[in-house]
Design goal:
With 91 residues, the protein is α+β, with helices and mostly antiparallel strands. The protein is built from four helices and five strands; from the N terminus they run βαββαββαα.
C-alpha cells in the first residue's frame, strides 16, 4: 500500500484554528497523521495518508475561508509533482 505526504502552505494563524482543522482532518478516512507548523512563516500543513486527499482538504480549507497552496505530494519519499511534471497529473 502506498503512503502519500501532501504539503500545503496555509494562512492559518491561530492555535484554535490549527487544532480545529487538525481534528477535522483526523476524522477523514485514510489520514494517518497530520501536523501544522504555526512557527513557520508559510504555516506548513503536512498530511500523511493512504490515498491522495488534496481535493477533500481543499474543500475543507475553503469552507473555513483559509487560504492554501498545494506545494508538493510525495509517494514513498519521491515528489509526485516533479515526477509527473505538473500538479494536475498528481491529483
Amino acid at each position: 500500500m502506498s503512503t502519500f505526504v501532501s504539503i500545503f502552505k496555509t494562512s492559518i494563524g491561530s492555535e484554535q484554528d490549527k487544532n480545529h482543522l487538525l481534528y477535522l482532518l483526523s476524522q477523514m478516512d485514510d489520514i494517518i497523521h497530520c501536523s501544522l507548523d504555526l512557527a513557520d512563516d508559510e504555516r506548513i500543513l503536512r498530511i500523511c495518508s493512504n490515498c491522495i486527499r488534496t481535493i477533500q482538504v481543499g474543500e475543507l480549507m475553503d469552507s473555513y475561508d483559509f487560504e492554501y497552496e498545494l506545494m508538493d505530494i510525495f509517494e514513498h519519499g519521491v515528489s509526485m509533482l516533479r515526477k509527473q511534471g505538473n500538479l494536475k497529473a498528481a491529483i
